[in-house]
Amino acid sequence: xxxxxxxxxxxxxxxxxxxxxxxxxxxxxxxxxxxxxxxxxxxxxxxxxxxxxxxxxxxxxxxxxxxxxxxxxxx
Length: 75
Prior knowledge:
Helix content is 68%, strand content 0%. It is mostly helical. The chain has one domain. It is globular, with a radius of gyration of 11 Å.
């Protein structure tokens, strides 16, 4: 389910950013990298910064890196 409230999405992404510092959580998040990348399609500075933080944490996982590159990376 996509949350329309930008503030709630931003806060959720910030929490995910903190949680993805843990190896187990990072591996779980890497399975859903496509859903994380959706947040990059919205131009909201705070959400973008939080999403990039999550990407930086998860990109060390091979699955996440492959999916990230398959989707074309960042413009």
